[in-house]
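Recap from last week: sequence in, structure out.
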Amino acid sequence: MQSNDKARLQYLSSLALGRPILPIASGVSVTHNPTYVVRVGFGTPAQTLLLALDTGTNAAWVPCSGCLGCSSAIFDSTKSSTFKTVACGSPQCSQVPHPSCGGNNCGFSLTYCGDSNLTANLVQDSLTLADYLVARITFGCIQNTAGPSIPAQGLLGLGRGPISLISQTPSIYQSTFSYCLPSYNSSGFTGSLKLGPKYQPVHIKSTPLLKNPRRPSLYYVNVLAIRVGAKVVNIPPSAFALDPNTGGGTIFDIGVVYTTLVQPAYAAVRDEFRRRMGNATVSSLGIFDTCYTAPIPIPSINFKFDGMNVTLPRDNFLLTSGGTTCLAMAGQMDGTDESVLNVIGSFQQQNHRIMIDEPNSRLCVAREPCS
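Predicted structure tokens:
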């Protein structure tokens, strides 16, 4: 079965069963952006946009009519019969970053990925998610954007903050969702975002879902060790420790492409990787400092979490470009707010089912090819 046929069958099955399943595609092939995207309808009647998924961000935001710096794909609020603005005094206005007031309408601004900025008006309208119509969702209507990292058609925030889609729909989706990300080079909508607890996998490995008051919107877990091949590398426990003062710890985040580890953890993984490569010549490529033209003998990398082990096959930790193969991980930059944070990125998560189960405080992982 071709990938597009597979995606269509999955979508039609979700309609027949009333299952809230949104097909996921690699943004590399669809929007030429290293994100994962889903189709979401805004307004009445629905206007469909391809939104980037991000578990590290809360509010959804889309480019709107008159936006400066936005792409040609926009949401035209004048064509929606259910559109309304959010007033400055509303509770939602205090839940967005850097709220502001222009007249009686609430606005906000934020920096995304450290190199891009946007300003938006806070609004409400209906969302169409697969065959489900969700009324009165609050989101940002972008008015101005600058920088290379803003997703062209908008973003769907799946974080733990009060303004995220998941937090706004507790009676519908019960703070539970899962996703399977296809490979970056796959074409078509072959992955899936499942909303709600009813159709989630039952037999699946899990680890406790932790909270860090310094960064309450992120999905923290406890890493105990990392194994490269057969070797458990020597990493000090402090590298993985949850720190409420600095925000340190380990998170899963599909808004970040490649796994980044704090320097002591990354140095240990990198050094063992290089040791296993023997005398092969090591080179750098972009952000990656451990690259080879020789065959890579390391079959897997294993993350040991509290309560579960996750073994990454080669496709989840090796990136090949022009005959050069790199360890697709990097160390955090010292002196930044992120220097204390380990991030399990989307490249390492691809072709796995990742489930967030807030009511039972667990994050679950199972191998599931969806490319």
